[in-house]
Design a protein that fits this description.
Blueprint: E1 6-10, H1 14-26, E2 33-38, E3 42-44, H2 50-54, E4 63-65, E5 75-79, E6 82-86, E7 91-94, E8 97-100, E9 103-106, E10 110-112, H3 120-123, E11 125-126, H4 130-149, E12 158-162, H5 166-186, E13 194-199, H6 210-222, E14 225-229, E15 233-237, E16 240-243, E17 248-250, E18 253-256, E19 260-262, H7 264-268, E20 278-279, E21 285-286, E22 289-294, E23 299-300, H8 313-331, E24 346-349, E25 355-359, E26 362-365, H9 367-393
Helix pairs in contact: 1-8
């Protein structure tokens, strides 16, 4: 029986792929068996999904084959869906087999949080995967076609986006940019199209300074977006939404971006969780499990101000690097490293040539922020794939 420790990584998102890449660099030959499990053969950039969802960019720009990112002589890639995590047995049940582990990294990403709003899980679309993005784009185009074939029924060109955080704002920006081309293609009067962005919180884009939020809303309002801030969606229907005020917006397209929770497999495995997120220790380990690490959307870490860090790609990447370091340390009986988040800045796209950004104590908006967004994206491409991936997937224009 092999005495080589077995490391299993569940999920090849930002955290999972960085963990795998750092492990293959740090581990010596035959020091550990590393298996990466992912339901698809590709890694995709969740921070890019709003563009192909709206139809302003190609899906191929948002994904890359995992085999191009890892050394398959050092990392075993298993394409499968995780069905169950059995911590007592140190096993992971897949749809087509079982994996045993000595060390487990749970990086399964998140799921849409509907907050119990009736009908939302049934009638709203979500921007969470390549397949969901493809569905949204095709659905939007279909609604324009139906509008011309069903006596100009207004609900077909009314679009409701729930949530005015990063995903919601970036999606409505891209959708607003796409509308003129769709109107021209389907002979629709642009003035008839309505985009509603509904947010229950008292402000859009939490975390940004008020002046940047105001700038973002001004830019998007000029592009045709109607904001309803401080108003919750009370119910989602087959043909629209009912707001807490009692107002009904008739729309054939509802896209929900209003919240993320951890993967339900985490709760089912018996971990104590809040909305599917586990409060991990300073080394990214699950409470009571020194051999199990949870990173990305499934982890909950508190910042120095006493609030949870938002589940962003930036924190998942840094967790992946720290997780790999601590796995190697565990195997070599060395001291693990405490996770310390280093905020590199925050950038939100507002469509073509527009954005807002905070880097250190400086703020940026407009064209400059839009270029910073591209720099951030290309930096990630460089980290995981070097210059060849930047040249292949980068957005330079």
């Amino acid at each position: 029986m092999s005495s080589i420790p077995k490391i299993v990584i569940l999920g090849a998102g930002y955290g999972g792929i960085l963990t795998a890449q750092r492990l293959q660099k740090a581990l010596n030959y035959n020091e550990a068996d590393v298996t990466l499990v992912n339901r698809h053969e590709y890694h995709y950039f969740t921070t890019h999904l709003h563009m192909p969802a709206a139809g302003t960019d190609s899906i191929e720009h948002t994904r890359v084959s995992i085999s191009k990112l890892i050394d398959e002589f050092k990392i075993d890639l298993v394409k499968s869906s995780v069905q169950e995590i059995r911590t007592q047995q140190k096993k992971v049940i897949l749809e087509d087999g079982t994996l045993s582990y000595d060390y487990l990294v749970i990086a399964l990403g998140g799921e849409p949080e509907t907050f119990g709003i009736p009908g939302l899980d049934k009638y709203a679309l979500t921007i969470r995967s390549i397949n969901s993005v493809r569905l949204i784009r095709e659905h939007i185009e279909y609604q324009f076609a139906k509008y011309k074939n069903e006596n100009n029924a207004q609900e077909h060109i009314n679009f409701v986006v729930g949530g005015a955080g990063f995903s919601g704002i970036e999606f409505v920006a891209e959708l607003a940019d796409r509308i003129p081309a769709l109107c021209k293609e389907y002979d629709v009067d642009p003035s008839m199209v309505n985009i509603y962005n509904v947010e229950a919180a008292p402000t859009a884009l939490p975390g940004f300074a008020p002046e940047l939020v105001e700038h973002a809303m001004t830019v998007l309002t000029k592009k045709g977006v109607t904001f309803k801030i401080g108003v919750a969606i009370k119910e989602c229907l087959p043909g629209g939404v009912i707001l807490a005020t009692g107002e009904e917006i008739k729309a054939s397209t509802i896209v929900w971006t209003g919240g993320i929770r951890g993967n339900r497999l985490i709760e089912a495995a018996g971990f104590e969780a809040m909305r599917g997120r586990v409060k991990v220790d300073e080394y990214l380990r699950a409470p009571g499990h020194e051999n199990i690490f949870i990173i990305g959307d499934g982890s909950l870490m508190i910042n120095p101000e006493g609030r949870p860090y938002p589940p962003t790609a930036q924190i998942a990447m840094q967790q992946g690097e720290c997780c790999a370091h601590n796995l190697v340390a565990a195997i070599r009986s060395q001291q693990p490293r405490k996770f310390a988040f280093s905020n590199k800045g925050t950038v939100a796209s507002l469509g073509k040539g527009q954005g807002i950004a905070v880097v250190g104590d400086k703020t940026y908006k407009g064209w400059t922020a839009a270029q910073l967004k591209k720099v951030v994206d290309m930096r990630y491409l460089f980290i995981i794939g070097g210059i060849p991936l930047v040249l292949k997937k980068g957005r330079f224009l």
